[in-house]
């Protein structure tokens, strides 16, 4: 039985990856941190399964900044695969908390590389990098030859971490790879992410709660995929003969305005957009009621450019493709929110 260690197992990706590796027959260890509210909701179903929890799934308390505890866990677990997913993952918030973002995303990744380097047998390491390393890119779509030009503290931190992974691969011979992942969503996405906010608003509207919501830049465009599919790519990257980075993306960009239409349409509601810029709003085409309005509060200080990834290398070398995107992704997200009401 292979042993894997996941940092960030309580997060969106970590929870799907935990399920995926358990289904593949792995013994899975996850690092969890103490919070004043119990933060295991995404893996509660695994914890509640007596055949899994304590048998093939084990949780260990540590914080990314508590390097002594991390070192002890890595030593005791002796994983063959490490999936390093933990860290502050909200781009907008990284402007509010830049120092802790840098500490968690950059310095902690370096600590994990150092810990792994010192183990008697170094594990294979997956590092969760991000399309935000490209910031405002000079090429569309982006691939591994695209220059890093981050535009926010989160992107800067991921540039440092991704670069360090490359250094440790070259200089110390570690099997460490970065997945430069574009946005991937799911019903388990944090509630302060825009896709989740919109899917949940569409479901509430469908259920009769007609409270309008506020959103930021409707012209912002993203390459949005579906998280459960992305974790399979993480695993495939560690199963290769040689360590290499990959861009993980759908290859398609959707504007926020279109994504909103897809979500409300999935809930059976047609929208009309009125006005422009900060005056723009969407109304229910049938009742004329306001569904959402634009608010400056949700605009990023600097928005990233046309971030859309070129997934051809992942298709060719991993046999991996992001299948769920666009209208289908909106349907999956909204249906999950509607089901949660029942
Ligand atoms: P997420 O849902 O925000 O999960 C983050 C995880 O990190 C949670 O388990 C969180 O624990 C843990 N964590 C945060 N700070 C920590 C600390 N100081 N010590 C220990 N654990 C800590 O993020 P995600 O969407 O699953 O993303 C996983 C990784 O992929 C992140 O590194 C993210 O930056 C990267 N990424 C994500 C996307 C995407 O679209 N989802 C795209 C590109 C890259 P709590 O549950 O206790 O908060």
Describe the structure.
The chain is of the alpha/beta class and 342 residues long. It is built from ten helices and 15 strands. Helix 6 runs parallel beside helix 8 and helix 8 (256-266) packs across helix 10. The chain is globular, with a radius of gyration of 20 Å. The two termini are 39 Å apart. Residues 8, 10-14, 33, 35, 39, 63-65, 85-89, 104, 128, 130, 181, 183-184, 190 line the site of NADP nicotinamide-adenine-dinucleotide phosphate. NADP nicotinamide-adenine-dinucleotide phosphate (NAP) binds next to helix 1 and strand 5.
What proportion strand? 15-25%
Q: How far is it from the N-terminal to the C-terminal residue, by CA? A: 39 Å
Q: What is the succession of H and E elements?
A: EHEHEHEHEHEEHEEEHEEHEEEHH
Radius of gyration: 20 Å
What would the principal axes of the Cα set say about the shape?
Answer: globular
Bound molecules: NADP nicotinamide-adenine-dinucleotide phosphate
Strand order of the largest sheet: 3-2-1-4-5-6-11
Instruction: Name the helicity range.
Output: 25-40%
The whole-number mean of residue pLDDT values reads 96
Number of helices: 10
């Amino acid at each position: 039985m292979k042993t894997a260690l996941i940092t960030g197992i309580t997060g969106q990706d970590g929870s799907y990856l935990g399920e995926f590796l358990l289904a593949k027959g792995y013994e899975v260890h996850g690092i969890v941190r103490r919070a004043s509210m119990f933060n295991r909701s995404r893996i509660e179903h695994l914890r509640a399964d007596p055949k899994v929890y304590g048998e093939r799934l084990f949780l260990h308390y540590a914080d990314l900044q508590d390097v002594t505890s991390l070192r002890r866990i890595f030593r005791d677990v002796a994983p063959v695969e490490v999936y390093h997913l933990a860290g502050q993952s909200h781009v907008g918030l990284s402007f509010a908390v830049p120092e802790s973002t840098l500490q968690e995303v950059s310095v902690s990744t370096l600590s994990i590389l150092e810990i792994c380097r010192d183990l008697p047998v170094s594990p294979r390491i997956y590092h969760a990098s991000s399309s935000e390393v490209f910031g405002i890119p000079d090429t569309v779509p982006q691939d591994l030859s695209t220059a890093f030009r981050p535009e926010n503290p989160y992107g800067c931190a991921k540039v440092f971490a991704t670069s360090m992974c490359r250094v440790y691969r070259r200089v110390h011979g570690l099997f460490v790879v970065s997945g430069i992942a574009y946005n991937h969503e799911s019903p388990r996405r944090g509630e302060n992410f825009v896709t989740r906010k919109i899917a949940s608003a569409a479901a509430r509207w469908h259920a009769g709660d007609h409270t309008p919501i506020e959103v930021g830049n409707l012209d912002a465009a993203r390459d949005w995929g579906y998280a459960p599919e992305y974790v399979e790519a993480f695993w495939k990257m560690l199963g290769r003969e040689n360590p290499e980075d990959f861009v993980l993306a759908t290859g398609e960009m959707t504007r926020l305005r279109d994504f909103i239409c897809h979500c409300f349409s999935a809930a059976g509601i047609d929208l009309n957009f009125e006005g422009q810029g900060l005056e723009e709003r969407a109304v229910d085409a049938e009742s004329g009621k306001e569904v959402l309005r634009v608010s400056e509060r949700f605009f990023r200080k600097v928005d990233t450019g046309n971030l859309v990834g070129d997934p051809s290398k992942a298709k060719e070398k991993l046999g991996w493709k992001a299948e769920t995107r666009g209208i289908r992704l909106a349907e999956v997200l909204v249906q999950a929110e509607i089901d949660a009401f029942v």
